[in-house]
Structure formats: structure tokens, C-alpha cells
């Protein structure tokens, strides 16, 4: 009985995965086939968005978000997201915030939506407001990255200073066990090793304070 249940679950999972792959393939083909010949070759334009808005539905938005990682259809996925109007506004914001889409691409997608006639006036106004919000989110994200970089630099400088103290028995005694273990772990990282590797020296072998 257990084997039957397990086999059924595996079969259902396989069918679900197959259906998901089929959906992703369908959406990808729609995006690629919406390109039009222009001055710079095949590309996307307002006519593409008209086609995409007819062939795609809001339930395709999660698939379009995943396609943003596919360089061949990344731009097309942006046009496709814009063609879904209001339904795509918050998913685009979330994708940018979760770094599944660059903030710049998210802003560009909102601009496309603002200019797309099939979107309602209300949706276009919300796209304008969201573009401003996304820009603010980018500024906050950039500040956080800068603060994290500064914190890492300060930590690296502190550990390096303690590493130099380890060369002097007198100064080494001034370090706490935690500080000595930090130096130890950083030394392993510099050698490309992990704790517990064959030539690893346990932390208790480090000089102990008197």
C-alpha cells in the first residue's frame, strides 16, 4: 500500500513538473514570436505588446518573472510583463526587491506600461507611482549595500590587526578566544580550506592567553 502511495505521489509530481515545463515553453515561444523586424533587426515594440496582451494572461506573470534570467528573452519578458498592465505592477516591484530583476529594468517596464494604450488610465497612473517607488527602493538597496561593504571592510581590518598581534606572544595574550578563532577561520579561508579539513589545526591549538 505504501509503495502504491509513494508511486502515485512521484507520478503526480512528474506530471506537475511536465505541465510547468510545458507552460514555460509556451510562454517563451509567445514572447519570441512577438518580435517584429525594425531598423535594428528583430525586436520588440508597441505592436509586440499588442500581440502579447492578447496571447498572455495574468497567470503567466510568474513564468515571465523567471524568464527575466534568460538573456535571449529578457527584454521580451519585460514587454510581456508591461502588456499585463495592473496585474503585473506588484510582481514587478517584488521581483526587483528580491533581485530577480534589476531596478533599472523594473523602471523601464513601468515606463512601457505607462505608454501602453491597452492599459487603463488608472493602471498607467499606478505604474507611474510604482516607478517612483522602485527608484526609492533602489536607493535604499544601494545604501544597504554600501553599509554592508563598509562593515565588511571594518571587520577585515580588525581581524587583520588581530592577525598581526598573533605574531607577538605578548600581544597575542591580549586577544580573546573569539578573536583568535576569527583569525584562525580567516586564515583557513585565505588558504581555500574549511574547518575539519585534513591539515586543519583545531582552534584550541592556537596560542592561549596567560
Give the SSE layout:
Elements: H1 2-33, E1 36-38, E2 41-43, H2 46-55, H3 61-67, H4 74-83, H5 89-97, H6 103-114, H7 121-165, H8 169-172, H9 177-190
Antiparallel strand pairs: 1-2
Descriptive account of the structure:
The structure is a single chain. By secondary structure, this protein is mostly helical. It has helices spanning 2-33, 46-55, 61-67, 74-83, 89-97, 103-114, 121-165, 169-172, 177-190, and strands spanning 36-38, 41-43. Strands 1-2 form a two-stranded antiparallel ribbon. The chain is elongated. It starts with a helix and ends in a 20-residue tail after the last helix. The model is unreliable at 203-210 (pLDDT under 50).
Helix/strand structural class: mainly alpha
Quantity of strands, as a count: 2
**Major sheet: size, sense and barrel closure?**
2 strands, antiparallel
Number of domains: 2
Overall pLDDT metric: 84
Terminal residue distance: 66 Å
Strand order of the largest sheet: 1-2
Order of helices and strands: HEEHHHHHHHH
Q: What level of helicity do the residues show?
A: 55-70%
Q: Per DSSP, what share of the residues sits in E-state strands of 2 or more residues? A: under 5%
Low-confidence stretches: 203-210
Helical element count? Answer: 9
Give Rg in angstroms. Answer: 27 Å
How would you sum up the global shape? elongated
Short synopsis of the structure:
This protein is an all-alpha fold and 210 residues long. The chain folds into two domains: 2-144, no CATH class; 166-210, no CATH class.
Amino acid at each position: 500500500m505504501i509503495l502504491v502511495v509513494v508511486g502515485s505521489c512521484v507520478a503526480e509530481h512528474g506530471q506537475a513538473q511536465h505541465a510547468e515545463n510545458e507552460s514555460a515553453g509556451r510562454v517563451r515561444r509567445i514572447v519570441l514570436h512577438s518580435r517584429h523586424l525594425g531598423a535594428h533587426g528583430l525586436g520588440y515594440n508597441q505592436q509586440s505588446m499588442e500581440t502579447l496582451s492578447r496571447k498572455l494572461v495574468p497567470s503567466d506573470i510568474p513564468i515571465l518573472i523567471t524568464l527575466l534570467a534568460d538573456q535571449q528573452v529578457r527584454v521580451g519578458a519585460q514587454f510581456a510583463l508591461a502588456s499585463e498592465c495592473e496585474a503585473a505592477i506588484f510582481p514587478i516591484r517584488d521581483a526587483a526587491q528580491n533581485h530577480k530583476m534589476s531596478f533599472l529594468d523594473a523602471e523601464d517596464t513601468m515606463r512601457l506600461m505607462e505608454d501602453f494604450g491597452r492599459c487603463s488610465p488608472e493602471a498607467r497612473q499606478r505604474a507611474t507611482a510604482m516607478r517612483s517607488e522602485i527608484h526609492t527602493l533602489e536607493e535604499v538597496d544601494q545604501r544597504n549595500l554600501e553599509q554592508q561593504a563598509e562593515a565588511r571592510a571594518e571587520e577585515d581590518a580588525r581581524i587583520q590587526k588581530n592577525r598581526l598581534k598573533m605574531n607577538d606572544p605578548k600581544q597575542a595574550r591580549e586577544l580573546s578566544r573569539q578573536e583568535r578563532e576569527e583569525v584562525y577561520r580567516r586564515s583557513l579561508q585565505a588558504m581555500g580550506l574549511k574547518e575539519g579539513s585534513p591539515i586543519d589545526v583545531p582552534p584550541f591549538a592556537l596560542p592561549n592567553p596567560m
